[in-house]
Design a protein that fits this description.
Order of helices and strands: EHEHHEHHEHHEH
Largest sheet: 5 strands, parallel
Radius of gyration: 17 Å
CATH topology: Rossmann fold
Strand content: 5-15%
Distance between the termini: 14 Å
CATH class: Alpha Beta
Strand order of the largest sheet: 2-3-1-4-5
Number of helices: 8
Helix content: 55-70%
Oligomer: single chain
Bound molecules: thymidine-5'-phosphate
Shape: globular
CATH superfamily: P-loop containing nucleotide triphosphate hydrolases
Length: 222
């Protein structure tokens, strides 16, 4: 199973990924945890460029193609080999982030982004996407607290420096995607406490696994 986690900054998805892995492993499954951008050797270099707040001159098109480059490398080196080996892949952000951030928030043409995704992904698609929905006012406050505590490097804060209006557009973009693909994307209220969120995720995963057992669809790995 290929599961992706999405949401604005400070929505708490990274913490919940650990719970998800424990839950899946408790069901006897094996998981590979990964993230975008930056989960390959080359991807780490791309991540530095993308998240460094000093890179103010990075234009939206260059940003888009850097995310696509990171993803191409990530799919080839990490995601497909893990799926082929029979592991579950749990990924912290994937292509919906590009549609939400570079498409809805930066304003790059959505058809162009879709065409790019077709090139980079082929037929690969997450089986399940969990969207952590949260008011960006709360998310950004949480994110900056984490940065001030030293939990996130100062040189990875380019998006936290974006205006609130930008993050509002990201959130609206994600919600629009969820409305378009309700079977794949499940929205979670990320303002709830951590335990409640974990329990909700466990319920979603149980339902999904049961569905797979009742109606197994063999995965076509490109
Ligand atoms: P994170 O590793 O803390 O989630 O930071 C990654 C940042 O990159 C986050 O602000 C969202 C942004 N991003 C995009 O803008 N487009 C993308 O396609 C991805 C994967 C992330």
């Amino acid at each position: 199973m290929f599961i992706t986690f999405e949401g604005i900054e400070g929505s708490g998805k990274t913490t919940q990924i650990n719970h998800t892995v424990r839950f899946l492993e408790g069901k006897g499954r094996t998981c590979v945890v990964t993230r975008e951008p930056g989960d390959t050797r080359i991807g780490k270099k791309i991540r530095q460029i993308l998240l460094d707040p000093e890179n103010r001159e990075l234009v939206p098109q260059a940003e888009l193609f850097l995310y696509a480059a990171d993803r191409a490398q990530h799919i080839h080196e990490r995601i497909l080999p893990a799926l082929k080996a029979g592991h579950d892949v749990v990924c912290d952000r994937f292509y919906d982030a590009t549609t939400a951030y570079q498409g809805y928030a930066r304003g790059i043409d959505l058809d162009m982004i879709q065409a790019l995704h077709k090139q980079v992904l082929g037929t690969l698609k997450p089986d399940l996407t969990i969207l952590f929905d949260l008011d960006p006012r709360i998310g950004l406050e949480r994110a900056w607290k984490e940065i001030d505590r030293g939990g996130r490097a100062d040189n990875e804060t380019r998006f936290e420096h974006e205006a609130l209006a930008f993050h509002d557009k990201v959130r609206a973009g994600y919600l629009e995607l969820a409305a378009r693909e309700p079977h794949r994307i499940t929205i979670i209220d990320a303002s709830l406490n951590k335990d409640e969120v974990s329990r909700t995720i466990a319920r979603i995963l149980s339902t999904h696994l049961q569905g797979q057992e009742l109606n197994p669809i063999p995965r076509q790995i490109p």
